[in-house]
Amino acid sequence: MSDLKLNVESAHPDYTPNTVDYDIAKTLFSAMMNDYSFTISQGADDSAFLMWTDGINEWLEHFVCVSHAIARLAHLQHCAESAWKQSFASTPLTFAQKFEFLMQDKWV
Length: 108
Description:
alpha+beta; 3 helices; 5-stranded mixed sheet; 108 residues
């Protein structure tokens, strides 16, 4: 996949990987949903990649762990269900910060 001309948008606090890191990541699953498709992969350090496309553009996002990538995928599905008119403004970093807050036991 190194032929992808993507910038990696990372929500990882310690580093931003490159497409070589994505190339060697283990693909966990991928699918096509309506007009977009995605792949979730796990890096050697257990971080996660979410590569997705709306059929026109491609994005590669990097997260601390797989659960963040899966949650981001649910967020993107919500956006797709509203024809990309709702909730699309958050970056991967903003999403990850809000997701971490949500997952804390404080709200239970």
